[in-house]
Write a structure and sequence with these properties.
The structure holds 2 protein chains of 2 kinds. By secondary structure, chain A is an alpha+beta fold. Chain A has 1 helix and 5 strands, in the order βββββα. Classes of the chains: A alpha+beta, B alpha/beta.
Chain lengths: 88, 368
Amino acid sequence: MCLGIPGKVIEIYQANDMIMGKVDFGGVIKEACLEFIPDIRVGEYTIIHVGFGISKLDEEEAMRTLEMLREMEMLADELPELNQGLSA
Amino acid sequence: MKYLDEYRDGELTRKLLAEIRQTVTQPWKIMEVCGGQTHSIIKSGLDQLLPPEIDLIHGPGCPVCVTPLELIDKAIALASRPDIIFTSYGDMLRVPGSDRDLFSVKAAGGDVRIVYSPLDALKIAQQNPHKMVVFFGIGFETTAPANAMAVLQAKNQGIENFAMLVSHVTVPPAITAILESPQVQVNAFLAAGHVCTVMGYWEYEALVGKYRVPVIVMGFEPVDIARAILMCVQQLENGEARVENAYARSVEQAGNLPAQSIIKQVFETTDRAWRGIGVIPESGYRLKDTFQQYDAELRFPEIQVINPHESSLCISGLILQGLKKPNECPAFGKECTPQSPLGATMVSSEGACAAYYQYGRYTSSLEK
């Protein structure tokens, strides 16, 4: 029920006094209400839930998290004891 | 898909699991509140890959599951009327009422339509001016702004043949109820990432202070989940209790202010009965007085439910409170399956019983 899918905003327009937009989910395009994320721009990513953008996806933060985790991964590779039990 | 695939990386997840194994020294019970996250955990097999010290307790965060039986029966009564088009998110159609479900009303010729968004229900109302369109407004804080927008739009556009059967629930009072329960022992919470996207996580600071339990805001993909569990175990092992955000690409501390603002404009807090659990004070939303004409219960006062009754075999109340696992139920996979569910937890894409059935956790001995 609370699932949300990240998609890229490809068009923004007004309808019935609401900010609406077209959002691309890996090739599938759907209309969504963007009224709760008024400063979103075309090309940016949002998380869509029941046809509404609920957050502007923080792309820098998304990269930072992955980089941080990959660094941890390198650390784990260097310290083989961290991998104990992994094959279990 | 971008921002999904990277967070489904198996290698990264395995490294995080190894780190969790290195960190854990004693048993911990950790509750993931959100039913969507329960499904993600069972689907990815994380429950079986975690070290045996970590027991994931599945929480009550499935709005389909906790919508009170009386309201399901009311929905069925409304949907059966020839003057009503009943609209709902798809998950609600197979939820068992006292005697039948919405799907059987549809099969018997009732005009029951599945919608993806509440704005679609509003469109149906505009296209069918001579019928009343009722939308089943269920959900947690994630869904509340969307449902509120549909009501506000109905008012602004003067759409009078639209009403909402409201059954909104909120997460923090449910967490408090679990913490106050003498039966439930939970050491830490994994908070629902999209509820926090809307509401922020500042509300949990007080809970953490009072009950000394770590709360980690968690995303929905395997990497997000493994990382949140690692942060949680690190806090528990260090004797800490803080709110931490493991889903920062979507969640800010203050949440989404325009979304919160429309919730406050349209809804007010009310006591709410949770199916299988009972009444939790101030744990739901109802429409404010200024939007009363869109309240389906007030619009159709003649719809009264007589003697709602649950299946005597179903233990979904215990499952929703984290007191039992689905495969500990004698009816699991026998009298009760997703095709003929006895309780709502066997129905939806987030009910714990449905997850256990779908991904083959048939016996508790398979758990680890």
